[in-house]
UniProtKB/TrEMBL annotation:
Residues 4-322 form the Inositol polyphosphate-related phosphatase domain. The lineage of its organism: Eukaryota, Viridiplantae, Streptophyta, Embryophyta, Tracheophyta. PANTHER family: OS09G0394600 PROTEIN, TYPE IV INOSITOL POLYPHOSPHATE 5-PHOSPHATASE 9. This is Inositol polyphosphate-related phosphatase domain-containing protein. Pfam families: Exo_endo_phos2. Belongs to the inositol polyphosphate 5-phosphatase family. GO terms for biological process: phosphatidylinositol dephosphorylation. Keywords: Hydrolase. The keyword Cytoplasm does not apply. Signal peptide: none annotated. SMART domains: IPPc. InterPro entries: Endo/exonu/phosph_ase_sf (IPR036691), IP5P_plant (IPR045849), IPPc (IPR000300). It comes from Oryza punctata. GO terms for molecular function: inositol-polyphosphate 5-phosphatase activity; phosphatidylinositol-3,4,5-trisphosphate 5-phosphatase activity; phosphatidylinositol-4,5-bisphosphate 5-phosphatase activity.
Length: 337
């Protein structure tokens, strides 16, 4: 979906009242997953538009502050410091519909090194990019970070959860980063000090559709979550061993009627149209020492049939030659178009 030019992302990024050191945004299906987009050349127009809107939202308050400072001090533009703090995109990558963009505050950029990206297609024939992941890693001071934006197998039929489990395991196995000249850099996702996985993981609720709808109408999230497929995988220990997720207190993120707060099943669709039961398809998982989640919620942007989820983390970074740690905040957001 192409975002409108006047789309304001400040509420989504929480940049009006707060400012974090690093922002990571992940999108799924920013282009339709048709044969032309899956097999043809990459269409980067939409991802470029998203980056423009992200940069505008993150730096808007800083531009206003700079103008106010100029008015108060009566200084000209040429007299202002040449290096004002601002956010800049250090890496963005698109694979078909999956898109991830990483932004950092400018005074942090000199301490970021070994920036790499790795893409894994797990869609048609197990390799095409209609499903899969985009992973971006970097080292901040002496601490390695890896962010993984995923779009796993869809479907609410019995057995589809196995396809999602396979996709997740396949992404962890096939994602590779260069080891560097000294061969001490982490090469796999799980080798990094701190890892965050976000995206449309597509896990559903293992209840009959009618029962799911009744529980959603009653907003009985605790009972629904007992049958959440991803949480069941956590509890059995078969998959996602060592991963963590914050407490879910928000409504299911899928499937909404376009430009509405009503779930899709609240409307009488056209004949033959699928009516999918609500589910928490969009998730943010994390692992690693020194990473602490301090916020996990969703925001009411009616951009698609999903609601974007977001999280804020407090991260500790080891500084060379210093036993202390540098602490900062990372804001993560995921949206499926």
């Amino acid at each position: 979906m192409t975002p409108s030019s006047d789309l304001d992302l400040e509420d989504w990024l929480d940049s009006r009242a707060n400012s974090y050191d690093i922002y990571v945004l992940g999108f799924q299906e920013i282009v339709p997953l048709n044969a032309r987009n899956v097999l043809g050349p990459r269409n980067s127009c939409i991802s470029t538009k998203w980056n423009s809107l992200i940069g505008e939202a993150l730096n808007k308050r800083r531009r206003k502050g700079a103008v106010l400072h100029q008015e108060i001090t009566n200084t000209s533009a040429t007299e202002r410091p040449a290096q004002e703090e601002h956010f800049r995109c250090i890496m963005s990558k698109q694979m078909v519909g999956i898109f991830m963009s990483v932004w950092v505050i400018s005074n942090l950029r000199p301490y970021i090194h070994h920036l790499n990206v790795s893409c894994v297609g797990s869609g048609i024939m197990g390799y095409l990019g209609n499903k899969g992941s985009v992973s971006i890693r970097f080292v901040l001071h002496e601490t390695s970070f890896c962010f993984v934006c995923c779009h796993l197998a869809s479907g609410g039929k019995q057995g589809d959860v196995l396809l999602r489990n396979f996709d997740a395991a396949d992404i962890l196995m096939r994602t590779r980063f260069p080891g560097g000249a000294n061969q001490e850099l982490p090469k796999k996702i799980l080798d990094h000090d701190q890892v965050v996985l976000l995206g449309d993981l597509n896990y559903r609720i293992s209840l009959e559709e009618a029962e799911t709808r009744l529980l959603v109408e009653d907003k009985n999230w605790s009972i629904l979550l007992e049958s959440d497929q991803l949480l069941i995988e956590f509890s059995t220990g078969r998959h996602f061993d060592g991963w963590q997720e914050g407490l879910i207190t928000f409504s299911p993120t899928y499937k909404y009627h376009p430009n509405s707060d009503q779930y899709y099943w609240c409307f009488d669709g056209a004949l033959g149209k699928k009516k999918r039961a609500p589910a928490w398809c969009d998730r943010i998982l994390w692992r690693g020492k020194g990473l602490k989640q301090i916020q996990y919620d969703t925001c009411n942007y009616r951009l698609s049939d999903h609601r974007p989820v977001r999280a804020v983390f407090h991260a500790e970074c080891v500084i060379r030659g210093d036993a202390d740690c540098a602490c900062g905040c990372i804001a993560l957001s995921s949206s499926s178009e």
